[in-house]
Amino acid sequence: MTETANSTVSAKPLDANAARRAAEGRHADDSKFRRYLRDNRPAIGSLLVFVVMLAIFFVGNTAVFSQWSIYRAVLQGLPVVLFVVVPLVFVVTVGEIDLSFPATMGMSGWVFSLVVQAGYDPFIGILAAAVTGVVLGACVGGLVVYANLSSLIATLGMNFMLRGVILIKTQGLSMALPDLPDTTTYQIFSGDLYGVPVQFLWAILFVIVCSVLYNRHRFGARVHVVGDNPDAAQQMGINIKTVRMQTYIFVGLGAAFAGVFAVLINFTWYPTAGDGYLLPALASVFVGGTAPWGGVGTIVGSAIGSLTVAFIQTGVVGVGLSGFYVQFFYGLIIILSLLGHRWNQIRYR
Amino acid sequence: MAERIIELKDVKKSYGQVYALGGVDLHVDKGEVVGLVGDNGAGKSTLIKILAGAVRPTSGQILVRGQPVTNWNAARSREAGIETVFQDRALAVQQTITRNIFMGRELTGPGGFLRVAEQEREAGKLMREIGFTSKVFSPNSIVGQLSGGERQGVAIARAIYNQSDLIILDEPTTALSLTETAKVFHFVRQARAAGRAVLFIGHNIHHVYDIAERFVVLDRGRAVLNATKAELGSAEALIKFMEDIARPAEEAGRELFAEAP
User: Fold this and answer.
1) Does the distance separating the beta carbons of B142 and A236 come in below 8 Å?
2) Exposure winner among A79, A103, B177, B180, fewest CB in 10 A?
């Protein structure tokens, strides 16, 4: 981000190109290609991490990693993560954090399963789950934004509390939905298209829409400035509480979709659904190159980060190492990625 | 009489038991440059924040073009044609110049999508307009890479967009170089020539005296002087007045009564 720009700030007459650009009144930041690089360096960085990791796995066990089935397995589970990671980028960019999404996933999946079990079309179940996610997102957001609680602790507390409600109400029993695969809704949202899981295509669409929302929409622009300098945003007439609330509601909605997709993949809802996603999803956001201090981030980068994190477990086992290595490699990839992003992320003050 | 853009009547603001403003009357008419001076803690910042809508007064009335306003806030203030360049410049430094200029007032098409190309064009035009052009930055440059004067330029460019009627400059020349200060002065004269009003706040009395034509002095939460340049006569008179009110209260009071017009 800075290297390219700095070189022009301190442009010396010796640099013929810089001199020519200056004479023409053009600036490096006007070059589409350079701007693309500047704006997407974290994303390109996380793509590089992924490619290098994949290459190592490929060399490690070419036979296994030449098969489509191993990629298909990852693509099947990945959408669930993407639906929470992408909205999380909005929350982190606005300068907050949300740790309550696993419970929201569980809650929304539960509502979906109850509606389907009661004999309604799964599509109505999805709507009910979405409403649940929005309401829970608003509750969590309200605690942070209007009750002024620390987002780290308040959302963690909500995660425990909502999960507790689920466990108390269900007494820890899961819910099987054996008729689910016969419905049209299932075919639309979780079927198979030429060997590619359909939910993966939905997730890709979601990532693209959110990327546009993040970079080219008023909502995204306000999320950026509120996360960057909340006082300035407020002085310029932006209602920063509203913007923060919207990001929490967005995470709730994303978690609801994630919860539904988790049920659609397994035909079963577990009372612990979502629990395992807390740390991998958070790691994906930062492995992807979103800055932890707010104001800057990348949707596409964090989506690639999710792919990287999702691939570690499959990859480590596929290479022939025992499952005991998985956690080590999680940590290794996270630390290496963050070290790499140090060069991309300069914090301006 | 020129159109009255904004008027404050007996505005008070207290933080708990402490009165920051104890009943201030202030008005700005169209096309005039008003200098607001006062010691640290006199209530200048609070007054500016009230005008900008960032702080709500405890009591008192705000009139915009003669009409009393309710639910005064930052968005309302901007709608009323009042733009503020805050002392800390209120910039999001990790964002581009364009995004800062259109902060809170993005140009959007249907569905709230940004008109990116148009925003960039407008931002470039604005930066050239106020004379803060430079070969080293473009509308797509990150504000964090700019110098203090250039950042001030971005804040001013944001303020003049939308043909605002009143521009409030809160200590705009603090920490600026001579040439940058000259640019700010040039901009104020430009704005006045275009029929806009400017409220200029500063610690450097000579700066303020040069640029403004009417002066308001704040002291401990009250407006203690409201005089035109002709009434004052010289910058020294203003400085002397400021020194006098800084003395112990009873002493200053005696002299004030003696000098009262």
Assistant:
1) no
2) B177
Asked if residue A197 belongs to a domain, the reply is yes
Q: Do A234 and B78 touch (CB under 8 A)?
A: no
> Structurally, how many domains does chain A consist of?
1
Domain region containing A194: 75-290+299-315+326-339
Yes or no, beta carbons of B141 and A27 under 8 Å apart = yes
Distance from CA of A112 to the nearest CA of B (A): 30
ipTM above 0.95, yes or no: no
Per-residue pLDDT tens digits for B126-166: 888 776 666 667 888 889 988 888 888 899 889 888 778 89
**Mean pLDDT over each residue of chain B, to the nearest integer:** 86
What are the C-alpha distances in Å from A87 to residues A92, A302, B215? 9, 10, 51
Q: What CATH number does the domain containing A223 carry?
A: 1.10.3470
Longest dimension (CA), chain A: 76
A248, part of any domain: yes
| Residues A91 and A251 sit within 8 Å (Cβ to Cβ) | yes
Using CA atoms in the order B245, B248, B252, B253, what is the torsion angle rounded to 10 degrees? Answer: 120
Whether B187 contacts chain A with CB within 8 A: no
Does any domain span residue A247? yes
Q: Which of B90, B24, B102, B16 is nearest to B52 (CA)?
A: B90
Is B225 in contact with B235 (CB distance < 8 Å)? Answer: no
Of A221, A233, A349, the CB nearest to B93: A349
Structure tokens at B124: 């470039």
Of B52, B108, B144, which has the smallest distance from its Cβ to A348's Cβ? B144
Q: How confident is the model at residue B28 (pLDDT cuts 50, 70, 90)?
A: very high
Radius of gyration of chain A from its Cα atoms, rounded to whole angstroms: 22
Q: At what angle do helices A218-228 and A240-266 cross, to 10 degrees?
A: 110
| Domains (range + CATH), chain B | 4-259 (3.40.50.300)
Beta carbons of A229 and B93 less than 8 Å apart: yes
**Contact flag B145-A221 (C-beta cutoff 8 Å):** no
User: Does a structural domain hold residue A244?
Assistant: yes
Please judge whether B138 and A233 are an interchain contact, meaning their C-beta atoms are less than 8 angstroms apart. Answer: no
Q: Do the beta carbons of residue B94 and residue B151 sit within 8 Å?
A: no
Within chain A, which residues score under 70 in pLDDT?
Answer: 1-30, 344-345
B157, B183 in Cβ contact below 8 A? no
Q: How far apart, in whole angstroms, are the C-alpha atoms of residue A282 and residue A216?
A: 24
In chain A, the residue whose alpha carbon lies closest to the alpha carbon of B53 is A235
Are A106 and A258 a contacting pair, CB within 8 Å? no
Q: How far A2 CA lies from chain B's nearest CA (Å)? A: 8
